[in-house]
Write a structure and sequence with these properties.
220 residues, globular, mainly alpha
Amino acid sequence: MMYMMIILCIVFAGVFLYTESNERYVPAVILKGLASFCFVMLGVMLSPGTHMAKLIVIGLIFGCIADVLLNLRMVFKEKGQLIFLVGILVFLAGHIMYLAAVLPISTHKIACIVIGIILTAALMVWIFKQITAKPAFKIFGVVYIGAIMLLNCVAIGNLIAAPSGFNGLFALGAVLFLISDIVLILNTFGKEFRQSLRITNISLYYAGQLLIALSLMLLA
């Protein structure tokens, strides 16, 4: 069943990309929702039921909801910006759940926070030079990237301090998630939309979420 969820997630994501590229936005939303539902189900199936695992599963659920919202902006274009911002807020809630799950086991919390702030500042300075966006989107971007950057610092810090299968898969998933978000921002607010970057964004995103879900099978 685990392998079936992974395969279905990949298949649905692939068909979603094809459907979206043909501007069939309603079926694209459904397909994306199905792809994301698969990584949620994977997390539910693999969860050992601990408090940490429950937080990660909630994070996966928020991710699934946000995925649908981000593509609904293409269906309801007159409310597109609002729907996009709400979707980012839901994604942010998911990152907070992930962070709440792994921060308690961090042995270097202050160092991770300081490094996260520094890296966020450097990354956002670079991103703002590449994109054109309204102030509201920039503010949301700083908060959002700050949250996922902090998550990455904590996850990588946990892996360095206590190497394990769970910490390794979770950290890799978080890194891929971060890269996919950077690609999404550049492709959405950059000079021009590129389908190749859209494929990269979606591929990295689903790989990241699947790895985070799979990490649960290694959580004691």
